[in-house]
Design brief:
19-stranded mixed barrel, mainly beta, Porin, Import receptor subunit tom40, 315 residues, 59% strand, 2 helices, 21 strands
Amino acid sequence: MGNNFTSQTTKTFQPKSKTSKGIKKKEGKNPGKMDHFTSEANSIINVRTFGGLSIFVNQILNRSFNITHQLKMGSTIEPPNYTLSTSYSSGNYLLQGNIDQMGTVRGAYFHKLLPRLLMNTNFRISKVNSYDTNFVSSSFEYFGQNSTTEVELSTDHHFVLSHLRTVLPGYSCGVEVKKKIGDQNTQSNAIVALPRSLKVVGKIKKNRDVLSVILSKGPNFFCTQYVKKVTPRIGLASEFLYSSNGQKNHELLSSFAVKYAMRNSKFQTRLTSNGEIYSLLNLKNSSNTYQFSTRINYPKDLYSIGFGMRINANL
């Protein structure tokens, strides 16, 4: 729920599958987190485009502490923004935080309580005093041999319970329930508009092919994704999404994406059924990465072009 750090950090704390001579065993493999359930498809479909100029500078001060600076300007969609981020890790815990020029502060704390039990607390504080912008949430994640269970509670009184399980090698499924504690089914604010939701997921993974399906109620949507690894360097992905928030509010969207990873570069592009094209090219040398981004919307005759630099300024 609004966690900007979870997807980048919990994989580090998640217990690894047992190996035999460097090969992972298929039996009893942990399915991972619910947030990572569609990571194979999202790594290809989610083309992170941007407009204008983006500069990202990373400074590793020591083995535990690093600082990053991010500056964005020249975009026709977003205003100029500067963000300062820090992270500190030591043993079984990790601290992360950032602040931007608008005064919004985000932070996260991860602590491995046991080899298979992870505690995660994150928060967001901004100048806007409302539950949907300012919150604190805490969760406990248990990574079993072939299942993952997560419980989360936040200050906006949302309770989340999810469970993923590997049924057979290559087959996994799960369910996630969200409930607003103390809800009286009123529509007095935007938070109560979605008092509860139920999500059911399933995935089949065979060799280089991955098929995932998501069903959700509150909001109502159906999503299916298919991934095909043609070669270790070339990946294809398709997505079909149907959502409905009312009797006349329906959305149908399909996407096709390609990812080509070379030795020192990576190219991604995505084409959607509503006429949008997202493209991103990453060129990497010994220490820095250069990014070229484009986004085109043919029906609305809109486009954006971006150039980015990721600089490693290690001390």
